Structures are given as C-alpha cells and as structure tokens.
Amino acid sequence: MSFPLWTVPHAHRKQMSNGSSFNEFLLLAFTDTRELQLLHFSLFLGIYLAALLGNGLIITAITCDHHLHTPMYFFLLNLSLLDLGSISTSVPKSMANSLWDTKAISYSGCAAQVFFLVFFVLAEYFLLTVMAYDRFVAICKPLHYGILMDSRACVKMAATAWGSGFLNAVLHTANAFSIPLCQGNVLEQFYCALPQILRLSCSSSYLRKSGVTVVSVCLGFGCFIFIVLSYVQIFTAVLRIPSAQGRHKAFSTCLPHLVVVSLFVSTIIFANLKPPSISSSALDLVVAVLYLVVPPAVNPLIYSMRNKELKDAGRKLIQWVQCQQQ
C-alpha cells in the first residue's frame, strides 16, 4: 500500500539539527526487565485476542442475523470494525518490541501507524457522534425514525464518518512528516503518537503548520457539544415517559453508547489536556492504554451485556459453529 503522504522528502526524512540522520524512531518501552517484558507481551496478547473475538462475534452476528439489520446495529458493526482497526494498528508492534526486546520502529512504519491511528480513532469519534444522533431520533422523534434513519441515510452517515477520519488522517500525517525534526527521534510513548512527533519538530515549523491541529480540535469540540446536547434532550424526553418500564427500556438502549462515549472522550481529553505538573512517562503510558487498547476489548461487553437481541444472536452463532464442528 502506498500513500503520497508517506513519500516524505528525503531531506526532511533524514534531517536533524546536529547534521546526523536516522531511518527509525525509538519507542518508549513499558519496562527494561526481561520478565516484565514477557508479562507485557502476554497481557497485550490476551487483550488483543479478546478484542478480536468480541468484535468478530458482533460483526458476524449482525451480518448473519437479519433481525439485527437496523440502524443501531449497523452503526455498531461499523464501530466494531473501527475498534479492530485501531487496536491492530498499535498493539501488535508493541507486542513484537517486547517479545524481541527492541524499541525501534521504521520511519515509514511510524508514518503508517500515525496515519491509521488518526484514521480509526477520529472515524470512531465521528461515528459515536452519528450514533448519538441515532439515539436522539429514536427517542425524541420516534414517529419520524423510519424516514430520518432509512438505509440510505445510515450509509451516508457512516461513510461520512469514515471519510472524515480518512481526510483528517491524510492532513495530519502529511503535516507531521513534512516538518523538519530537530529534537531527535525518541518518542515517549509505546506507539507513534502524533503529539510526540510534533514535539520533535522545529518550533518555527510547528507554529507555521499547526493550523490543521486547530481545525481538528474545533471540529472535535463541535462533535462533543453535539453529543452533550443530544443526550440532554434524550434524558429530558425519557423522564417524561409515564411508565417506569418505558423509561427503563429507553435508558437501556442509550446506556451502552453513553458509557462508550464517556470512556472514549474522557481518556482522550485527560491525555491531551492534563496539567504538565502531573505529566510523567508512566502516567502517559497508562492513559494511552486506557483510550487506545482497553476500549476495543470492552466495547463488545458493554454493548452485549444489556442487549438481549445481540446476546441471542451471538448464542445462535456459537451454537451453529459447534454444530458445524460435530
């Protein structure tokens, strides 16, 4: 696979302030002790396999069960695809580095990792915004749900989320890797994090090319406000439902999405806006794991825990697989 944004000019790719050159970046290791490195590998392997299994089951169940061919489950299928993409971009390389006791990642590999992480993470954020709108229409405008959320509208909204993530990934990656790097090649994170790349750039170049970041922050803040306002109206409408059973049913359809959004947004906000006084390499690693590694593994549990239809579809799928093996 080849992207024009990866073909960074050779002078920028090699340049450092002291005249030396490099072809790779050095990532921050969780530990230098061999036993703990193997423990890190085993822990990440378990989380990665759990994410593959959980999201794979959701994707397969929604695809195969026609009862789940509704807007909510269509967006959930897209969310599982994005979760698989984000965790597959960051975790395998970290596992390999721990297993082989190395910290290096190639220049092109780092650029690819930045591109795909920005793509999957931002596309997921935009998709969560779309899912908030879906819940808003379902609860606040139920009589118009079939019109506002028909199949064509759902496909367009999902495509917009994916396309917006892709466009932002192209702009951010091209922006970051076209800036000369003057601060070495050591990244204080277990993956190629975009803020870490920008910290290595020359200050004058960073200020000159920070417009893309400002635009994305404004766009992300707009999505956050939209989600908050959607849930304010959702809760207002739910509290007006006369029956306790009706309120419980309405809350149960919104609660998983609200939990996922809260976990996703809160950890990212803390990672990027925490005071410098409490910043440390260990804390940055923990926070990165919380918003990049944990959500793809726990999201399937959050969505299936209180969802009878999804659990029934998953149970049928498992029974079918067992019958095929006998």
- By secondary-structure content and strand pairing, the structural class works out as mainly alpha
**Sequence stretches where pLDDT stays below 50 over 5 or more residues:** 1-21
> What would you report as the Rg, rounded to the nearest angstrom?
22 Å
Summed over residues and divided by their number, the pLDDT gives a mean of 82
Q: Tell how many strands the DSSP assignment holds.
A: 2
Q: What share of residues are in beta strands?
A: under 5%
Order of helices and strands: HEHHEHHHHHHHHHH
Q: Strand order, main sheet: write it out.
A: 1-2
How many helices in DSSP terms?
A: 13
User: Shape, please?
Assistant: globular
Question: What can you see in these coordinates?
Answer:
The protein has 326 residues and is mainly alpha-helical. The chain has helices spanning 10-14, 34-64, 71-100, 107-140, 145-148, 151-177, 194-199, 203-208, 211-239, 244-273, 281-292, 294-305, 308-325; strands at residues 24-26, 104-106. The protein has a two-stranded antiparallel sheet. Helix 3 (71-100) packs antiparallel against helix 12, helix 4 (107-140) runs parallel beside helix 9 (211-239) and helix 9 packs antiparallel against helix 10 (244-273). It is globular, with a radius of gyration of 22 Å.
Quick recap:
The chain has about 325 residues and is mainly alpha-helical.
Task: Supply the key terms.
326 residues, mainly alpha, two-stranded antiparallel ribbon, 75% helix
